[in-house]
C-alpha cells in the first residue's frame, strides 16, 4: 500500500517521462501485433485496422491506463478546479448569491458551534481533566437535588478512600471587600484549600502558596492574580509581604499566580484565600458552602468511585447520625458540574442554525440546477467528445466544493462577528470568555462546507450525468421541463417553507412568552424605584466568630449601620420612602424550613422549603406590596417584643388552608442546618405574592422576618441574609435618580469609609434583566428566523420564476387562444399557494415535535399554541404569495409571438 | 483459434499474468500472446486491460520491468516476476483451486 502511494506520488512528478514510456511501449505492442498479421500475409493497412479492433486503439488504451491510477484523480481534479474557476468567473452574480447564502448559513453554524465547542466539547485545560469529579451530597428527602457537603467531611474521605489521588475544596467566585487603601472596592475572591494549586499543576510566578497553619482568627495569607498584581502593585516584586484588608481580615500577600490562571469558572479572580478543613470552625459539619473536587486514580472509573463513596457515606451516617442520617454523596464529572447548564439552551439553537443552513442549501441547489440546465449544451458537447459521465459529475462536484469552501471561508470571517453578537446578546455567563475560533471550529466549518457542497451539488450533478446527452445535441435547446426535475424544484421550495416555518414558530412562541412576561404583575409597583445593594463583610467590625464551630455572631453595628443609612436616605430630597431586604425580588433569597407550633412536625425528610429574607421597616410600603390581612412589620418590632413575621398569600393558602394564619407561631430553621431557631416567630400579617424567583416563576411561599429581630448567631454562612441588604428607594416622580445614587454613596462613605456600594439601578432594569434569558432566546431565534424567511422567499421566487419560464410557450398559446390574463395569473398563484400550503403543513408538524425542546424557555404559552401556528402559517403563505406575484405578472405579459418563436 | 473469444474472467487476469511471467520474463505483447495460446484461444486480451493490470502489479511490487532488445532487434519493456510476486502467485493459485473445487462441487450436486 505504502509503496503504491509513493510510486503514485513519484508518478505525479515524472508524469511526462512515464507518458512517453507508456506511449513507446504501447506502440511496440501494437506494432508487434500488426507484424504478426503481416507475416501471416495481411496488408499493412488492413493489419493495423484489425489490431485496433482486436486490441483497442493507442489513445483509448493510454487513457484507460492513465485513469486507472489515483494520481489521475488528482490530476483531473486540478484540471476541473481550473476549469471551475474560469467557468464561475464568467458568472459573478451567480457566485455572489451562492457564496453569500452559504456564508450566512455556515457562519451562523460556526458561531453556534464555537459556543458549543467551548462549553460542551472542549476538555477542561487540566492534567487528566476527564478524571476530575465534583463531590455533592443529596439532602435528606431530596435525592434529586445536590448541595455542597460539609467542609469537615474532606478529612474523613481523605482518610478512608482508595479511589482518589487527591481532593480539594473550592468556592465559586465570591465578592470580597478590599479596604484600607483609598476608597473601598469590591473584588473577586475564591476560597480554596492549600492543595488546590498543586492539584491543578499550577505554580506561582512569584513567591509561594499559602499554608493552612497561617490562618488565624483575624489574619491570613493570600495569593493574588497576575491582573490584580499589575493593577494594584504595578507588577513590582516587592508585593510579597504587603498587607491587604480583605472583608475585614488582615491578609499578607505571599504569592502571585501566572496570567490566565482562572480555574473552573473562567471568571477573573483577584485573590485566593485559604480554607482549613481541620480548623475547629468546621467541626460542627453543618456548613454547605465549598464544593470538593477530586481526581480519580488512573485506573478507577466513576462507578467504582461512587461505590466507594457510598460505603464511606454509610460509615459516616453511623459516626455522625446527627448531621449525616439519610444523606448520600453523588459524584459528577467536573465538566458536567461546570458546563452542564449549557446543554439545554444550546442544543436547540444548534438545531435552529442547522435549519438555516439547510434552507441555504436548498436555495443553492435550486440555483445550481438552473445553471446546470443552461449548461446542458456544454455538457452534451463534452460528452460527445468523449468525456465520461463520471468526469462530468466530478466537474460539477468540484465546482460545488469550490463554491462551498468559499462560502465556508467567508462564513468563518462572519462568525468572528457572530461571536461578538452572541456575546452581546447573551451577556456574561460562566465560560463566556472561553468562546473563540479554534482548530475544532475551523475543522467543523471545513467539514460542513464540504457536506453542503454534496447536499446542493450532488443532485444537479446526477441530473446532468443521467440525462440523455446525445438527444440533447440533436434537438438543441429544448424548452420543456422534465417532470422529475420540476418535482425536485418544488420539493426544494416546500422544504424551505417547512424549515422556515419551524424557526418562525420558535420565534413566535418566544415573542408570545416575552409579551406575557412583560404583562406579568410582579406583585409590587416597580415604577420610580431606585435600588442599590450593600454587602457588609463577613469579618471585621460586623461579625465575630463563635469559637469552636462555624457559628457567626453579628455585632450591633450591622443594624445600627442600616438604621442610620435608611434614616438619612429618607431625609434626602426627592425620596418618597425607603426600605430594604436581603434580596430584592428576582435576586437572592434564602431557603428555610419550619414547624408550626400546635401542628404535628413533619418527618425530617419531608420538611418543605420556603423563601426567606430579612427586611427593614418600610420595605412593604416602599415596594407597595399590598397588605391582605393583619399588619406590616414596623419600627415597633424590636428585639424586646415578640418576633414577628409576615407571610405571603401562597404561604397562607398552602400551610393554613382551614385556619387563620394570623397569630400562629412557627419555628424557623435555616436549611440544611439541623437545629431550629431558639425563639418562635408569630405571623402578624399576610401580603400579596411577589415573584421572588423571577417573573417566569410563580411566587414561592415566602416568609419576611424583621432585620431588627434576630438571634445574633448564624450557622454556616447564613449570616449574609443579615449582612446584605438591598436598598429600595421610591422617588417622587420627576426627580433625577442619578443625583440620588451619588448622595447615597456619600452617606455610606460617611457611615463606613471601608464599605463599597453598588451603582444605582432601577427596579425596572432588574426585572428586565431577570427575563434576560427569554429575551436572549427571542433575539437569537429571531435573527435565525429572519434569515430563514429571507432565504425561503428567495427560494420561492426562484422556483416560481422558473415555473413561469418553463411554461412560456403554453401560456403564450393560451393567451393567443383568448385566455384572460387573470386565468394565467391564477394558475401561477395557485401553484405557489399549493407549494406553501404543503410546506406550512410539513413545517407545522415538524415544529410540533421540536418546540418541546424549547419549552423550558417558554412562559405562559404551550409549545403547541394554536394561535402561534395559525398566525405564522398565514404570514408565511402571504409572503409566498407576494414572492410569486412578480413571476405571475410576468406570465400574463407573455407575448404569444415571442413565446411561440422559441419553438 | 476457437470460434468465440472472451475477455478473461474478472479478477483473474493478474493471476494469469503472474503465471506467464513465472515461466519466463517477457514483454507486454508476449504476455498477451502466451495467455491466448495457453488458453487454447478462449481468452482474448485487449491492450487496455493488460496495461492497467501491469501497472497495478508493478505498483504492488509483484513485478518489475526493464527495457531490453527483442529477438527482432526492437526495444521492448520486459516484465520480471519478483519474489513477492512469486509468493502471491502460489497463494492465489491455491485459493483459486479451492474456489473452483467448491464451485464444481456445487454444480455437480444432484
Descriptive tags:
heterodimer, A: 903 residues, alpha+beta, six-stranded mixed barrel, six-stranded mixed beta barrel, 25 strands, B: 110 residues, Arc Repressor Mutant, subunit A, three-stranded antiparallel sheet, 55% helix, globular
- The average pLDDT score of chain A comes to 86
Q: N-to-C terminal Cα separation of chain B, in Å?
A: 34 Å
Number of strands of chain B: 3
Please name the two chains that share the biggest interface, counting residues whose Cβ lies under 8 Å from a Cβ on the partner chain.
A-B, 25 and 23 residues
* Category from helices, strands and their pairing of chain A: alpha+beta
Q: State the CATH architecture of chain B.
A: Orthogonal Bundle
* SSE succession of chain B: HEHHEEH
Detail the poorly predicted runs of chain A.
473-482
For the record, what CATH class of chain B applies?
Mainly Alpha
Intertermini distance of chain A: 57 Å
What is the quaternary state of this protein?
heterodimer
Sequence stretches where pLDDT stays below 50 over 5 or more residues of chain B: none
Count of DSSP strands of chain A = 25
Give the spatial strand order of the biggest sheet of chain A.
3-4-9-6-8-7
What is the mean predicted local confidence, pLDDT of chain B?
85
Our Rg estimate of chain A from Cα atoms comes to 38 Å
Please give the share of residues in helix of chain B.
55-70%
**Class from secondary-structure proportions of chain B:** alpha+beta
CATH H-tier superfamily of chain B: Winged helix-like DNA-binding domain superfamily/Winged helix DNA-binding domain
**What count of helical segments of chain A does DSSP give?**
29
Amino acid at each position: 500500500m505504502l509503496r503504491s502511494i509513493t510510486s503514485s506520488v513519484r508518478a505525479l512528478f515524472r508524469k511526462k517521462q512515464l507518458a512517453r514510456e507508456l506511449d513507446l511501449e504501447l506502440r511496440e505492442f501494437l506494432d508487434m501485433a500488426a507484424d504478426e498479421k503481416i507475416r501471416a500475409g495481411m496488408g499493412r493497412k488492413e493489419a493495423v485496422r484489425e489490431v485496433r479492433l482486436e486490441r483497442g486503439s493507442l489513445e483509448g488504451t493510454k487513457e484507460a491506463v492513465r485513469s486507472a491510477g489515483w494520481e489521475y484523480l488528482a490530476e483531473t481534479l486540478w484540471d476541473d478546479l481550473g476549469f471551475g474557476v474560469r467557468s464561475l468567473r464568467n458568472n459573478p452574480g451567480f457566485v455572489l448569491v451562492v457564496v453569500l447564502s452559504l456564508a450566512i448559513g455556515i457562519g451562523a453554524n460556526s458561531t453556534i458551534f464555537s459556543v458549543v465547542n467551548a462549553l460542551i466539547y472542549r476538555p477542561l485545560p487540566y492534567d487528566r481533566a476527564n478524571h476530575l469529579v465534583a463531590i455533592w451530597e443529596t439532602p435528606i428527602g431530596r435525592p434529586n437535588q445536590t448541595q455542597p457537603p460539609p467542609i469537615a467531611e474532606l478529612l474523613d474521605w481523605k482518610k478512608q478512600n482508595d479511589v482518589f489521588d487527591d481532593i480539594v475544596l473550592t468556592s465559586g467566585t465570591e465578592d470580597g471587600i478590599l479596604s484600607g487603601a483609598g476608597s473601598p472596592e469590591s473584588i473577586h475572591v475564591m476560597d480554596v484549600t492549600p492543595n488546590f494549586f498543586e492539584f491543578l499543576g499550577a505554580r506561582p510566578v512569584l513567591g509561594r502558596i499559602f499554608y493552612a497553619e497561617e490562618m488565624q482568627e483575624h489574619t491570613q495569607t493570600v495569593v493574588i492574580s497576575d491582573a490584580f498584581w499589575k493593577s494594584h502593585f504595578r507588577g513590582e516584586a516587592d508585593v510579597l509581604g504587603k498587607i491587604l484588608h480583605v472583608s475585614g481580615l488582615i491578609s499578607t500577600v505571599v504569592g502571585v499566580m501566572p496570567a490566565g490562571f482562572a480555574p473552573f469558572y473562567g471568571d477573573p479572580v483577584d485573590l485566593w484565600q485559604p480554607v482549613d478543613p481541620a480548623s475547629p470552625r468546621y467541626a460542627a459539619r453543618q456548613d454547605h458552602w465549598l464544593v470538593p473536587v477530586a481526581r480519580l486514580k488512573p485506573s478507577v472509573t466513576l462507578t467504582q468511585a461512587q461505590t466507594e463513596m457510598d460505603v464511606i457515606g454509610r460509615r459516616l451516617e453511623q459516626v455522625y447520625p446527627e448531621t449525616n442520617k439519610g444523606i448520600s454523596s453523588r459524584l459528577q464529572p467536573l465538566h458536567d458540574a461546570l458546563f452542564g447548564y449549557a446543554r439545554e439552551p444550546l442544543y436547540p439553537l444548534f438545531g435552529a442554525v442547522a435549519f438555516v443552513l439547510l434552507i441555504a442549501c436548498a436555495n443553492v441547489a435550486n440555483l445550481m440546477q438552473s445553471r446546470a440546465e443552461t449548461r446542458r449544451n456544454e455538457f452534451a458537447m463534452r460528452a460527445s467528445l468523449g468525456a465520461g459521465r463520471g468526469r462530468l459529475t466530478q466537474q460539477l462536484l468540484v465546482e460545488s466544493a469550490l463554491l462551498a469552501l468559499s462560502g465556508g471561508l467567508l462564513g468563518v470571517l462572519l462568525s468572528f462577528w457572530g461571536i461578538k453578537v452572541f456575546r452581546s446578546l447573551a451577556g456574561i455567563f460562566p465560560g463566556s470568555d472561553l468562546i473563540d475560533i479554534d482548530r475544532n471550529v475551523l475543522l467543523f466549518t471545513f467539514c460542513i462546507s464540504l457536506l453542503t457542497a454534496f447536499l446542493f451539488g450532488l443532485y444537479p450533478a446526477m441530473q446532468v450525468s443521467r440525462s440523455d446527452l446525445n438527444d440533447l445535441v440533436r434537438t438543441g435547446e429544448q424548452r420543456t421541463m422534465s417532470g422529475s426535475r420540476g418535482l425536485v424544484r418544488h420539493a426544494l421550495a416546500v422544504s424551505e417553507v417547512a424549515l422556515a416555518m419551524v424557526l418562525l414558530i420558535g420565534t413566535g412562541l418566544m415573542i408570545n412568552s416575552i409579551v406575557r412576561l412583560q404583562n406579568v404583575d410582579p406583585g409590587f409597583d416597580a415604577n420610580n424605584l431606585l435600588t442599590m445593594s450593600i454587602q457588609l463583610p463577613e469579618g471585621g467590625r460586623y461579625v465575630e466568630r463563635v469559637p469552636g464551630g462555624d457559628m457567626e455572631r453579628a455585632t450591633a453595628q450591622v443594624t445600627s449601620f442600616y438604621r442610620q443609612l435608611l434614616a438619612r436616605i429618607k431625609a434626602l430630597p426627592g425620596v418618597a420612602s425607603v426600605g430594604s431586604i436581603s434580596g430584592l425580588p428576582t435576586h437572592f433569597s434564602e431557603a428555610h424550613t419550619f414547624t408550626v407550633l400546635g401542628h404535628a412536625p413533619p418527618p425530617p425528610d419531608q420538611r418543605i422549603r420556603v423563601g426567606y429574607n430579612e427586611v427593614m421597616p418600610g420595605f412593604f410600603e416602599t415596594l407597595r406590596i399590598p397588605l391582605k390581612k393583619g399588619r406590616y412589620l414596623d419600627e415597633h418590632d424590636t428585639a424586646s417584643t415578640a418576633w414577628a413575621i409576615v407571610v405571603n398569600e401562597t404561604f397562607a393558602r398552602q400551610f393554613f388552608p382551614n385556619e387563620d394564619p394570623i397569630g400562629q407561631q412557627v419555628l424557623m430553621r435555616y436549611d440544611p442546618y439541623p437545629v431550629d431557631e431558639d425563639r418562635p416567630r408569630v405571623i402578624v400579617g399576610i401580603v400579596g405574592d411577589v415573584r421572588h424567583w423571577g417573573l417566569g416563576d410563580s411566587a414561592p411561599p415566602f416568609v419576611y422576618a424583621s432585620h431588627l429581630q434576630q438571634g445574633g448567631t448564624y450557622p454556616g454562612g447564613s449570616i449574609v441574609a443579615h449582612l446584605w441588604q438591598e436598598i429600595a428607594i421610591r422617588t417622587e416622580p420627576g426627580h433625577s435618580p442619578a443625583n440620588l445614587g451619588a448622595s447615597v454613596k456619600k452617606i455610606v462613605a460617611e457611615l463606613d469609609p471601608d464599605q463599597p456600594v453598588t451603582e444605582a439601578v432601577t427596579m425596572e432594569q432588574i426585572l428586565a434583566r431577570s427575563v434576560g434569558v427569554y429575551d436572549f432566546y427571542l433575539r437569537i431565534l429571531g435573527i435565525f428566523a429572519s434569515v430563514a424567511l429571507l432565504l425561503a422567499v428567495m427560494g420561492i421566487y426562484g422556483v416560481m420564476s422558473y415555473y413561469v419560464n418553463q411554461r412560456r410557450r403554453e401560456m403564450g398559446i393560451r393567451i393567443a387562444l383568448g385566455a384572460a390574463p387573470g386565468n394565467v395569473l391564477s394558475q401561477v398563484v395557485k401553484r405557489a399557494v399549493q407549494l406553501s400550503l404543503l410546506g406550512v403543513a410539513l413545517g407545522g408538524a415538524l415544529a410540533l415535535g421540536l418546540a418541546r425542546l424549547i419549552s423550558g424557555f417558554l412562559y405562559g404559552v404551550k409549545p403547541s399554541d394554536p394561535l402561534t401556528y395559525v398566525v405564522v402559517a398565514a404570514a408565511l403563505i402571504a409572503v409566498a404569495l407576494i414572492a410569486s406575484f412578480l413571476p405571475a405578472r410576468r406570465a400574463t405579459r407573455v407575448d404569444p409571438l415571442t413565446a411561440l418563436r422559441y419553438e | 483459434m476457437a470460434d468465440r473469444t472472451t475477455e478473461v474472467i474478472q479478477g483473474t487476469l493478474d493471476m494469469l499474468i503472474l503465471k506467464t511471467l513465472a515461466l519466463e520474463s517477457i514483454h507486454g505483447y508476449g504476455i498477451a500472446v502466451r495467455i491466448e495460446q495457453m488458453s487454447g484461444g478462449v481468452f482474448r486480451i485487449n491492450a487496455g486491460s493488460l496495461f492497467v493490470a501491469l501497472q497495478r502489479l508493478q505498483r504492488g511490487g509483484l513485478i518489475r520491468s526493464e527495457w531490453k532488445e527483442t529477438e527482432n532487434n526492437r526495444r521492448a519493456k520486459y516484465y520480471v516476476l519478483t519474489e513477492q510476486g512469486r509468493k502471491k502467485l502460489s497463494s492465489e493459485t491455491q485459493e483459486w483451486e479451492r474456489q473452483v473445487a467448491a464451485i464444481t462441487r456445487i454444480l455437480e450436486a444432484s
